[in-house]
Amino acid sequence: MDKLVMTGGAPLKGEINIAGAKNAALPILCASLLTADPVELFNVPDLQDVRTMLKLLQQMGVTLEFPNPNDRSHLILQAGTISSPEAPYELVKTMRASILVLGPLLARMGRATVSLPGGCAIGARPVDQHIKGLKAMGASIQIRKGFIVAKIAEPNTRLQGNAILTDMITVTGTENLLMAACLAEGTTILENAAREPEVGDLAELLVKMGAKISGIGSDRLVIEGVPTLHGASHHVIADRIETGTFLCAVAATGGEIVLKNCRPDTLDAVLVKLKEAGLKMKKGADWISASMSGRPKPVSFRTSEYPAFPTDMQAQFMALNAIAGGSSRITETIFENRFMHVQELNRLGADISIEGNTAIVEGVDKLSGATVMATDLRASASLVIAGLAAQGETQVDRIYHLDRGYDRMEQKLTQLGANIRRMK
Ligand code: EPU
Q1: Which residues pair with 65 in a beta bridge?
Q2: What Å distances lie between residue 181 and 35, 161, 170, CA to CA?
Q3: Neighbours of 118 (CB within 10 A)
Q4: How far is the CA of 122 from the centre of ligand 1 (A)?
Q5: In which band, very low, low, confident or very high, does the pLDDT at 30 lie, cut at 50, 70 and 90?
Q6: Which end of the chain has less Cβ packing within 10 Å, N or C?
Q7: Using one digit for the tens of pLDDT, what is the confidence trace for 251-287?
Q8: Sign of the torsion angle spanned by Cα atoms 216, 237, 196, 16
């Protein structure tokens, strides 16, 4: 198993490119199942979850081409025929986002068998809302031997549009129902829809493919179903969480960096908190520069759905608060178990305690290097940030979690002058 070894203390300096968003690329790859035509994608991040999704789609009969073998961010998918509308346990257990094939398969093929994702490190994460919405569109769905077995109740008919109000805001739930609704008969209204920019990016691709969607970017999506969709070409939106992660890193280490190919307009809540922490920033439409000197100020926040502060940035801010000059409170409202990094940060000398869904962080002068273990994707990023700010050497074990969601993180950090290396 790979690990990252870093020596803290070096301020970050230089320029890097931000990759396409993992959480936009994953549903977008699944949208290729909705048409027999080719779908051409640019700015796809090269990371493990994307490779897993491509493998899953290929198993179903989707063809994959990289027009330029040296550029894995540009690819063409074609679901001419779908030989097997199934997502096996082996792949779903490694990546919950595999559930995103359910809506498209059901809408295009009239049936789908998808392994039920289990619980995961950050919470129970059920998919009941995905199932409830598809049932409301006329699907018959049973759970058999750990699989979601779905089919359109009446043979040779399409899903039926309906008004769907989810019990809570769910990102992949909205995406699954949105994709299914595009090929349904009649109008679907998704109330309480997730407004995350990744949902909007998927919707924009679907419109290019011939879908009729209004309300993009709002919490009410109205989809007029069409019988077929066609091919399209799309550039995946920049990863706001990767952007925020590097900004937290420079806020923790000090220095001056420029992030290119990013979308600062998707990061308002994060930028407000970074400014409060003392990070100086300038931004344009697709770049942001940031500089930091001195110790960060503590920032308190609660995570919530977009456009509020994202749960996917909570752990990285915890690392920053760990070395801030004062105390802060971080409340996690999206996932019930997303504080696994706390114990590991404390191993580096942080002073963090948990009360229910709130972490109380007493900033310390210095963290000191130690061996720590990554427990999930964003927790890993938080440990890397802490390690870069700590005195001495930090070893982060189990970084396969990090590789799932960051495109060449340690290479980018090296480019910014960090003393970090991967060990096999
Ligand atoms: N929920 C249910 N039932 C459902 C669906 C969701 O109870 O049917 C609950 C979840 O358990 C959770 C809350 O609703 O407590 C919100 O979950 P959501 O469905 O929005 O999360 P997700 O779609 O599974 C996506 C991202 C996550 C990100 C969350 C929240 C993808 C592939 N994943 O997950 O990303 O944290 O939205 O913004 O888009 C990450 O990138 O590190 C990551 C975990």
Answers
A1: 76
A2: 14, 6, 16
A3: 12
A4: 10
A5: very high
A6: C
A7: 999 999 999 999 999 999 999 999 999 999 999 999 9
A8: negative
Give the C-alpha separation, 77 to 100, whole Å: 16
Residue 357 contacts residue 138 (beta carbons within 8 Å): no
The pairing of strands 358-362 and 220-224 is unpaired
Residue 120 has pLDDT above 90, yes or no: no
Q: Please tell me the distance between residue 171's alpha carbon and the centre of ligand 1 in angstroms.
A: 6
Q: How far apart are CA 188 and CA 167, in angstroms?
A: 17
**What is the DSSP track for 102-150?**
HHHHHHHHSEEEEEPP--BTTB----HHHHHHHHHTTEEEEEETTEEEE
Q: Please tell me the predicted confidence (pLDDT) of residue 224.
A: 98
Residue nearest to atom 6 of ligand 1 (CA): 170
- Tell me: pLDDT of 163 over 70: yes
Nearest atom (ligand 1) to Cα of 175: 23
Q: Which atom of ligand 1 is nearest to the CA of 124?
A: 11
Give the CA count within 13 Å in the CB-facing half-sphere of 105.
Answer: 24
Q: Which atom of ligand 1 is nearest to the CA of 23?
A: 39
Q: Which of 49, 125, 380 to mutate to test the pocket of ligand 1 (most atoms within 8 A of CB)?
A: 125
Tell me, in angstroms, the distance from the centre of ligand 1 to residue 306's CA.
Answer: 12
371 forms beta bridges with: 395
Ligand 1, residue 130: give the atom nearest the CA. 8
Catalytic positions are 120
Q: What's the gap in Å between 7 CA and the centre of ligand 1?
A: 34
pLDDT of residue 124: 80
Query: Is pLDDT at 1 greater than 90 in this prediction?
Result: no
pLDDT tens by residue, 331-384: 999 998 899 999 999 999 999 999 999 999 999 999 999 999 989 999 999 999
**Distance from C-alpha of 424 to C-alpha of 182, rounded to nearest angstrom:** 45
Instruction: Give the global pTM.
Output: 0.98
Residues having CB within 6 Å of any atom of ligand 1: 23, 26, 97, 123-130, 168, 170-173, 311-312, 334-335, 377-378, 405
